[in-house]
Amino acid sequence: MKDRMEQAAAAPKTLVEARGIGLRRAGRWLVSGVDLAVKAGEIVTLIGPNGSGKSTTAKITIGIQKPDSGQVTRARGLRIGYVPQKLTIDWTLPLTVARLMTLTGRYGTPEVTQALEEVGIAHLAQAEVQHLSGGEFQRALLARAMIGKPDLLVLDEPVQGVDFAGEVALYNLIREIRDRTGCGILLISHDLHVVMAETDTVVCLNGHVCCRGTPESVVTSPEYLQLFGSRAAETLAVYRHHHDHTHLPDGRVQRADGVILGDGHAHGDHAHCDHSQQIPAEPQTLPEAGAGVSPLPEPAAKDQTRDPEAANAR
Ligand SMILES: Nc1ncnc2c1ncn2[C@@H]1O[C@H](COP(=O)(O)OP(=O)(O)OP(=O)(O)O)[C@@H](O)[C@H]1O
């Protein structure tokens, strides 16, 4: 009895659990039947093509969007740090990194300095955000998400606008944050094939959960090692699969045997995907821009989306 209680106490706490969640807009299920859970200290990575519902799933999971089906359970008092894919802000106004840190929360200079130190950009506190490189900008956003000491960190494409060396550094930083704080991380990857090696579970979305599993251990491909170096190989891993079904324009799924599955189906409704493939010749390019922080809905109207290309160019 005592052993069982000790085991239960030692087991990582489930921070958030989504069951069968779906969101329907304009007669179409953007996502449906998605199951997802993140425990303390765990890294869960969402992958999938553009428009496959990764951001939508993350937003439902943390409560920014209300699901039309399914339910989400969050741990009591859960603190969430969120870096959305797009930051909507008026970039025509000057904004220092230190000010960015306090836009949506009241934090004193020591807290701001500590958060910036933790992501390695304390020296940039008075720099203008517009002048940051892509990697520095993402670190600033990470610091902003971390300043509230979250239990769950949700990062929507945290390496966008960053070159591959920068990606490795950022993934290392994310791993360090997880190791140091024990927070759970829900990470959305812009890349279909490359995910953090430390990822515990990869969930592949395409409107629904196509497949999930642990990432394969790092690639041995000479091309890959040549491209990224052995350090990158220690950090990144490959996760590939083959779909055995087609997605119809209305969001339903047609299996290989021709059977069409209805709305809100779960993964078990269709056959499996093959995860046994090897090594991408070349990772994919980065998607559109932007980023931001806060579990609140992003501000609207005249704000502009930041262009990471522009940030990189500076
Ligand atoms: N509020 C909305 N109303 C209608 N359609 C929406 C809404 N939000 C998202 N969509 C659509 O839902 C689909 C999923 O969008 P989502 O941003 O979740 O995908 P994603 O996998 O994160 O894409 P990307 O990799 O391009 O960022 C897209 O086709 C998008 O156009």
UniProtKB/TrEMBL annotation:
Record GO biological process: response to zinc ion; zinc ion transport
Organism: Denitrobaculum tricleocarpae
A single GO molecular function term of this UniProt record: ATP hydrolysis activity
Protein name per UniProt: Metal ABC transporter ATP-binding protein
One Pfam family in the UniProt entry: ABC_tran
Keyword entries, A-Z: ATP-binding, Cell membrane, Ion transport, Membrane, Nucleotide-binding, Translocase, Transport, Zinc, Zinc transport
Annotated region (Disordered), positions in chain: 264-314
Domain ABC transporter residues, every copy: 16-231
